[in-house]
Amino acid sequence: MTKPTIAIVNSSTESIELDHLLWEVLWKPLGLPRDFRSSLKLDGESLELVVKADRGIVGGLVANWIGDSEVEIRHNALSPEVQNRSKGRRLVTFLTSTVSGHGCIRVRTIARSTSAGFFRKLGFAISPGKPPQHPDFEKQGITFVLMKKDVAQTGQGDAVNQARPT
């Protein structure tokens, strides 16, 4: 078995596989429809990352550029069998290092309250303001927390050039 790797999604097949994983982990357990992700989509440039293992994609993260210097993590999920094995941390770290070299100074997220501890461990802090709520999540008792992390600027690397086309 090879060590799982993190990569930027570079094919429609990977994007479809990521979409399926997100639904299986995040929305199917709540009884939400298969196309639920489309109702949460933001306009603008997005970045999709995946954790690839021998058996396919086992984790993923979707982020959107919000302006020229800020990125928002929209979705972050891991298959149950790879949770608590540093894959989520590696996804967020890869995202942060990738976008920091392309002018991003802050990464933010609207985290489920149950995920706030995970983001806190990665250096995110609670942001002021009221997070948006969604009726489908409110029915399940799920609330959200606004969080942010300032990121250091790095040089232009290969991953950066793939992450944000010019």
Explained architecture:
The chain has 166 residues and is α+β, with helices and mostly antiparallel strands. It has one domain: Gcn5-related N-acetyltransferase (GNAT) (Aminopeptidase). The chain contains six helices and seven strands. A hairpin with a 2-residue loop joins β2 and β3. The longest helix is centred in the first third of the chain and has 16 residues, at 12-27. The protein is globular and about 35 Å long.
Poorly predicted segments:
156-166
> What is the number of independent domains?
1
Structure summary, number of beta strands: 7
Annotated CATH homologous superfamily: Gcn5-related N-acetyltransferase (GNAT)
Rg, Cα atoms, Å: 15 Å
> What is the molecular shape?
globular
Structural class: alpha+beta
Strands across the major sheet, in which order? Answer: 1-2-3-4-5-7-6
The CATH class: Alpha Beta
Largest sheet: 7 strands, mixed
Give the number of helices: 6
Classify the helix fraction into a percent range: 25-40%
Q: What is the CATH topology descriptor?
A: Aminopeptidase
* Corresponding CATH architecture: 3-Layer(aba) Sandwich
Instruction: Let me know the average pLDDT.
Output: 87
Q: What is the straight-line distance between the termini?
A: 37 Å
Listing every helix as H and every strand as E from the N terminus to the C terminus, the arrangement reads EHHEEEHEHEHEH
Strand content: 25-35%
List its traits.
alpha+beta, Aminopeptidase, disordered C terminus
Question: In summary, what is this structure?
Answer:
This protein has helices at residues 12-27, 36-39, 87-100, 116-121, 135-138, 158-163, and strands at 5-8, 46-53, 56-65, 70-78, 106-112, 125-126, 144-150. With 166 residues, the protein is an alpha+beta fold. It has one domain: Gcn5-related N-acetyltransferase (GNAT) (Aminopeptidase, 3-Layer(aba) Sandwich), CATH 3.40.630.30.
